[in-house]
Amino acid sequence: QIRLLPRTPGEEPPGAEDSPAPRTALSARRFAVLLIFSLYSMVNAFQWIQYSIISNVFEGFYGVSSLHINWLSMVYMLAYVPLIFPATWLLDTKGLRLTALLGSGLNCLGAWVKCGSVQQHLFWVTMLGQALCSVAQVFILGLPSRIASVWFGPKEVSTACSTAVLGNQLGTAVGFLLPPVLVPNTVNNTDLLAYNISTMFYGTSAIATLLFILTIIGHASTVLLPPSVTESSRRGLCLEAVSQSQLQAAIISLEEAFKEKPRYPPSRAQAAIQDSPPTEYSYKNSIMNLFKNMPFVLLLITYGIMTGAFYSVSTLLNQMILTYYKGEEENAGRIGLTLVIAGMVGSILCGLWLDYTKTYKQTTLVVYILSFLGMVIFTFTLDLQHIIIVFVTGGVLGFFMTGYLPLGFEFAVEITYPESEGTSSGLLNAAAQIFGILFTLAQGKLTSDYDPWAGNIFLCAWMFVGIIFTALIKSDLRRHNINTGITNGDIKAVPVDSPTDEELKTVMMSKQSEPEI
């Protein structure tokens, strides 16, 4: 169950002979944790976009305006902003288990509430269900970097974060693809339309329920033998040395839920945090430290602009496409699918590139510039009356714009270490939701009053501002410094629910820029 990270004398940093390096190990269980999270994140993202991609259908069914349907998407953004602070506090103090169960459980509950809204006068019920799903999202979006840091080693942490983000993107892709197929535009036959909507809602609820059950089961599973068996075996002791009491204790531990972290930290950076006194941690001080960190504040703004633009384009894509291509609801969904699938490829490639090069700022800046160029090309080719061109330009835009999402998460963790990954990711997502609401309202107004070209130019202007701010970010790879053994500065602690039995050690760190690396 446990694979020790390879360690050779040549890997030891200078001066390591005087103090033993922290014990680190990789657990095979990390892949199950990542899979479970990705699946219920996928269903939550599907529920976010399932209305917007067929907005004209729901407008006709409920007899509401396009703004009402847009709010079914924007409620996700609106709910996130006030709830992010209690959610990140809960993650930091109570850990992954409770946060994961809340996210999956609320997502399931919201899906079932929407099943009771398939009548034309019950728009408020579908809004209530969507609001519950939006609250679930608060307990989901901040977890990718936390799961990656706590469970994965330094050579795979960026890829793990990208994979966790991938689940959310896959849900958006499915949300673009399936609703136009499951709920075709049959406004003239209200009974058939209600049946199709009901089929989509009940199918979503069944899958969400299954994933909630898997979350409970998966988060309650653990190995029968205690981790000390592995350690004893490593030292040459035989399996028979395990006492009956140890086996009983291990079986009883099955009743305990998902471990907040593996037995041994996967990297020196996590070892440094876990070995620090937890009494030093203050959530309020952590928030203040983040806002005093100017590189992080700049990243907060640039991430909010980029991701907010993505949210706005996703929400209004159906309206943009139907303006120039009448009756192309299904192709609008396929274009959205192309955008997100290309972005999923971009996310994985960016994660692999970061794990290989650790060039966080350079990669982030290049991807930002290419996203801006993709948006410009998409804007000026949208009305050429050749929908195949929109497929191509949408794919290019999605590859870079969606591929940027895990870059922002990982760059934030690097420049804010040792502050909690959940807190930094939560603030990034809060910025994205704020910009997403503002951009969606502004672009939607420009699109309805003028045309999609005006709304897209508005986004291009803001993305250009984001490029300038990204260039101003100072790169200080603190987590990478710890993992490579560079030491010279105090590490503060974050809450540790299962403190190690080793003596608390003071681990030091220093600043090292990307050019020096």
TrEMBL record:
Protein name according to UniProt: Choline/ethanolamine transporter FLVCR2
Transmembrane segments: 31-49, 69-91, 121-143, 202-225, 294-313, 333-353, 365-382, 388-413, 425-442, 454-473
Gene Ontology process terms (BP): erythrocyte differentiation; heme export; mitochondrial transport
Keyword Transcription regulation (UniProt): no
The family this protein is said to belong to: Belongs to the major facilitator superfamily. Feline leukemia virus subgroup C receptor (TC 2.A.1.28.1) family.
Domain Major facilitator superfamily (MFS) profile: 33-478
Coiled coil: none
Subcellular location, record wording: Membrane
Cited Pfam families: MFS_1 (PF07690)
Classification via Gene3D superfamilies: MFS general substrate transporter like domains
Annotated GO CC locations: membrane; mitochondrion
Keyword annotations of the record: Membrane, Receptor, Transmembrane, Transmembrane helix, Transport
Region called Disordered, residue ranges: 1-22
Source taxon at top rank: Eukaryota
Primary localization class, coarse: membrane
Recorded topology in the membrane: Multi-pass membrane protein
MF terms in GO: choline transmembrane transporter activity; heme binding; heme transmembrane transporter activity
Signal sequence, renumbered to the chain: none
Catalysed conversion reaction: choline(out) = choline(in); ethanolamine(in) = ethanolamine(out); heme b(in) = heme b(out)
